[in-house]
Amino acid sequence: MSETALPEENVIVLDFGAQYGQLIARRVRDLGVFSSIVACDAPAEEIAAMKPSALILSGGPASVYAEDAPSVDPKVFELGVPVLGFCYGQQIMATTLGGEVGHTEKGEYGAAPLSRRGESRLLTGTPEEQTVWMSHRDAVSRVPEGFVVTSVTDTCPVASMECAEKMLFATQFHPEVRHTEHGSDMLKNFLFDICGLSATWSMENLVDSMVASICKTVGDDRVILALSGGVDSSVVGALLSRAIGKQLTCVFINHGLLRKNEPEEVERVFTEQFDVDFVHVHAEERYAELLDGVVEPEQKRRIIGTQFWKEFFTVAQKTGGVKYLAQGTIYPDIIESGARKTGGKASTIKSHHNLIPFPEGVHFDLIEPLDHFFKDEIRALGTALGLPDRIVHRQPFPGPGLAIRIIGAVSPEKLEILKNADAIVREELDAYNARLFEETGERNSEHSCWQYFAVLPDIKSVGVMGDERTYARPVILRAVESSDAMTADWAKLPYDVLARVSGRIVAEVPGVNRVAYDITSKPPATIEWE
Ligand code: XMP
């Protein structure tokens, strides 16, 4: 939420580079309290300025004794807000406040039986014996003054500790992970009994506060919106058009790497839906020239992202008076692009097009109202804003478009093949999803596809068609089940659906003689091939 105010009740997760960091924020939001993530080493004054209702210190991969172990500003424990630490968060709380952490001989990974000790505000209402999820080697060996031990496991003498008087609580285990049987009860104890919060946050009441804060930020200035027609930028468009109406210009860059019929569809749907200025920029030739012969995926992403900024800047200069560029950056984009704003320790998986640095001579102030949200939350926000289902439930499509689904250099011939094959994949799997929706009444039911598309590898193979030898391209079908793109399973599609997709592609798309199905999940693969 770069330019939008935080709701009055908000819990800040200090990120120590945990694989569970986002999950904690997510669990808190699911319980009806807004939560966002901030770098672990943010100064206490900066954190105080965000007026948090509570802090949660996440886990992390480091040892507190490692040379460059992430640390926390000790003053965060004096802000007068309740603090809860998990795993590394417990250890850093202990060492910062005068306790000790020791290396244990044997780590503890997975489910572990926990026994409670004495009274505990955090564990109130949970059984004396219960199962928790552990993932650690170091452990607290001596609690700081004023703290009591509230549970143990066979290998962990301080599985949880608290100093109720100072409102400081911590667990060595991970309450945010579903395998911790009563983790959700503990989070509820913390949020509602200890912090006195009221579970009033929801997507619906968020809309009003986001609109108000966009109005306040923008004032009388003009904003251009980087509109791709996907759910994220459309939701930002809906928010902005509600907030600032005619001060908004929606800019759609046609880079020639869009799916079949997509540019026309985006323009029609968006201009029907909203009474805003819409600019369609035909940049196909410029992109074709820039991408000529480029093979390496990160280089493609950089070229495409940089040119996007230049195109927007040109429109802004023509429009005049534009201070802001709004875009639909979402939380996973930031995580996978190297955690620009969480400041976390995540590494760069791929540079999302909207997080490429500005080239020289280009500058905008950014408005990214969705940068703390996951895809399924954004869909709920879109529905709360009254966007039609056909926009809200569009499958994700990456900004760099088909350029990152054509392995190797992009060419007009490859683009034509991929557009045609992809159109068949979407037609068949849209129909498959629609059948499942009819049967189950659920949009993301078990086995429905979340994202599906065709990929064109840079190889050819031999086939036989009509008694003739062919030497032509294979197409790869990618279809995954997911809810937020952070993890994904390959879709267990029925054989008859696979057979129809394969049969149609080979029969209807010239230049293709084979179809393969990608049966890899994320991780270890990613959803896109580049
Ligand atoms: P990966 O391939 O990293 O993708 O598993 C996760 C989700 O993000 C989409 N994606 C992008 N979206 N700009 C975007 O707007 C990008 O540069 C980009 N790269 C990947 C991808 O389609 C999937 O839904």
TrEMBL record:
GO terms for molecular function: ATP binding; GMP synthase activity. It comes from the Bacteria. ATP binds at S228, G229, G230, V231, D232, S233, S234. InterPro entries: Class_I_gatase-like (IPR029062), GATASE (IPR017926), GMP_synth_C (IPR001674), GMP_synth_GATase (IPR004739), GMP_synthase (IPR022955), GMPS_ATP_PPase_dom (IPR025777), NAD/GMP_synthase (IPR022310), Rossmann-like_a/b/a_fold (IPR014729). Transmembrane segments: none annotated. Pathway: Purine metabolism; GMP biosynthesis; GMP from XMP (L-Gln route): step 1/1. Residues 201-394 form the GMPS ATP-PPase domain. Its EC number is 6.3.5.2. Keywords: ATP-binding, Glutamine amidotransferase, GMP biosynthesis, Ligase, Nucleotide-binding, Purine biosynthesis. It catalyses: XMP + L-glutamine + ATP + H2O = GMP + L-glutamate + AMP + diphosphate + 2 H(+). GO terms for cellular component: cytosol. The active site is at C87 (nucleophile), H174, E176. It is an enzyme of class 6 (ligase). Catalyzes the synthesis of GMP from XMP. PANTHER family: GMP SYNTHASE [GLUTAMINE-HYDROLYZING], GMP SYNTHASE-RELATED. Homodimer. HAMAP family: GMP_synthase. This is GMP synthase [glutamine-hydrolyzing]. The lineage of its organism: Bacteria, Bacillati, Actinomycetota, Coriobacteriia, Eggerthellales. The gene is guaA.
